[in-house]
Design goal:
With about 500 residues, this protein is of the alpha/beta class. Among the domains are: about 180 residues, P-loop containing nucleotide triphosphate hydrolases (Rossmann fold, 3-Layer(aba) Sandwich), CATH 3.40.50.300; about 150 residues, Rossmann fold. About 35% of the residues lie in helices and about 15% in strands. The protein has 17 helices and 17 strands. The strands form 3 sheets. The chain has a 7-stranded parallel sheet with strand order 6-7-5-8-9-4-10, sandwiched between helices. A hairpin with a 2-residue loop joins strand 2 and strand 3. Helix 5 crosses helix 6. The N and C termini lie far apart (about 95 Å). The N terminus is likely disordered.
């Protein structure tokens, strides 16, 4: 490793969020930093620099080598900046490397992606070379953004290996994806619909498939991918390792798992529907018509930068972006109606700091992975309480500190109670100066959590009586319904007479 790659910078604790945002906003016009200052960062003396960096790399190598990972992977992990494995990685990596099927429950932001990408890379380093158009491992994801994020991780962790990874999803041209698959792929990350399209055009084959991964299986079921998943399962070889990762083990997930995994190793490192303890959460009661003004005031008063705002609808996200732009706050929206190119550009601009606010819907936000994202705002509470956990999981990732604010009007009180019941936590209420609601939120009481519904048992077929004929009786022996026994018609034929007019033939 070169000496230049061993530079370590330490962010001063006295720096406020507003100062960081101001520096972030005007970095283009900032003067060149001096020898001892670098845009608010303090430079460690060179003699201590190499020593600290070497100690950090050695600790990383010892941490991940103990999990059975080889030198090319631990080298990439050290460059990623990880100091130790997260709980899901400590339990998930050995389970996957054992070769058994795995069912893992982990919330977003816990290092879940690395817990299956790293052992996949370790396993695929040995084995036959992948053939043309073939795939050795398949990762299915519900959204394009999540697929792109997993691909970024696979490329980074596998850069010191000879393995090749590709990503395919809808919303973009299919021909470039077909060309990339011609030389074969060790790890293919795909959304179900585009994968089936590629298979129908003979662009991908599964003769060499060794491992199947279903990431965010709960979201796949919510988005209606169950039929596509079963179609894909019928195309894959029976002898394979199956890995399922989900935020929860609901009855629906267990029913799906029954068709996929065989005697799986179950891994669960956090309580179901729990939120990260590093995320500070509170609620601001506000009238519905004042939400936009309250959001603008909240952002400007606190000098917040890099804020992820959740909207319940696509049109609501578009309207909010227009209103934020009018207030002088740069913003962009990502949702299902946006093209893949527009969504990628908006996300990249948000990561680079070119825009201040990213407004997203629940589905489009899956896969957004921004290191140390400081703020998440729920402009609308979700209709499904579980989505609240996924939303605020965008901040406070991997032990970092974050804030999650919800703007709640009186008509969303039922959704608020559902969230508190799911998380078993009463959210703190705070007031926003100048935005006291005309209809304040009532106090809520913590209710016991809902018990999961048991899956319905299939109905047993009725047993036929002994000696009964298996075939139905001939039709001529069965009396017709609504007909008297003597065979006379029940209704009299229609007659035209008196004041009633004959029907007119309109075909003339």
């Amino acid at each position: 490793m070169s000496k230049t790659s061993l530079r370590v910078f330490r962010l001063t604790r006295s720096q406020s969020d507003g100062e960081r945002g101001a520096r972030f906003k005007s970095r283009a016009s900032s003067p060149r930093p001096t020898e001892n200052e670098h845009n608010g960062f303090s430079r460690v003396p060179s003699h201590a620099l190499c020593y600290c960096a070497r100690l950090n790399i050695l600790s990383v190598l010892m941490s991940f080598e103990s999990l059975g990972l080889s030198a090319p992977l631990t080298r990439a992990i050290a460059e990623k900046g990880y100091s130790e494995a997260t709980p899901i990685q400590r339990e998930g990596i050995p389970a996957v490397m054992s070769g058994k099927d795995v069912m893992a429950a982990a919330q977003t932001g816990t290092g879940k992606t690395a817990s299956f990408i790293l052992p996949l890379l370790e396993r695929l380093q040995s084995g036959p070379r992948v053939k043309s158009n073939n795939v050795r491992s398949l990762v299915l994801t519900p959204t394009r953004e999540l697929a792109a994020q997993i691909q970024d991780n696979a490329e980074f962790y596998g850069k010191y290996t000879d393995l090749k990874s590709n990503v395919v999803f809808g919303g973009v041209k299919i021909n470039p994806q077909m060309q990339k698959l011609r030389s074969g792929t060790d790890i293919l990350i795909a959304t179900p619909g585009r994968l089936l399209d590629l298979y129908s055009q003979n662009a991908v084959r599964f003769d060499q498939l060794e491992v199947l991964v279903l990431d965010e299986a709960d979201r796949m079921l919510d988005m209606g991918f169950i039929r596509d998943i079963h179609k894909i399962l019928n195309l894959l070889p029976k002898q394979r390792q199956n890995l399922m990762f989900s935020a929860t083990f609901s009855p629906e997930i267990k029913e799906l798992a029954h068709d996929i995994v065989n005697n799986p190793v179950e891994v669960s490192v956090s309580p179901e529907n729990a939120t990260a303890h590093t995320v500070e959460q509170w609620v601001i009661g506000v009238d519905k018509k004042s939400k936009t003004a309250a959001l603008i005031d909240l952002i400007k008063t606190n000098n917040w930068f890099q804020v992820l705002v959740f909207s319940r609808t696509k049109h609501g996200a578009n309207r909010l972006v227009v209103q934020l732009d009018k207030a002088g706050i740069t913003a962009a929206a990502i949702h299902g109606n946006k093209s893949q190119g527009a969504r990628t550009r908006a996300l990249q601009a948000f990561k680079q700091g070119d825009i201040q606010i990213l407004v997203a819907t629940d589905i489009a936000a899956r896969g957004i992975d921004i290191k140390e994202l400081p703020h998440v705002i729920n402009f609308d509470l979700p209709n499904v309480a579980e989505d609240y956990v996924h939303r605020i999981g965008r901040t406070g990732r991997a032990g970092s500190v974050g804030q999650a604010v919800s703007l709640v009007s009186i008509d969303e009180f039922d959704q608020l109670r559902a969230v508190e019941r799911l998380t078993q936590k009463l959210l703190e209420r705070r007031d926003l100066k100048g935005f006291a609601p005309n209809n304040p939120l009532p106090e809520s009481k913590l209710q016991p959590p809902l018990k999961p519904k048991k899956p319905k048992k299939p109905k047993k077929p009725k047993q036929k009586a002994e000696g009964a004929s298996a075939q139905p009786a001939p039709r001529q022996n069965q009396p017709r319904r609504n007909r008297p026994a003597d065979g006379t018609p029940k209704r009299k034929p229609r007659r035209f007479g008196g004041n009633r007019k004959k029907p007119v033939n309109r075909d003339l």
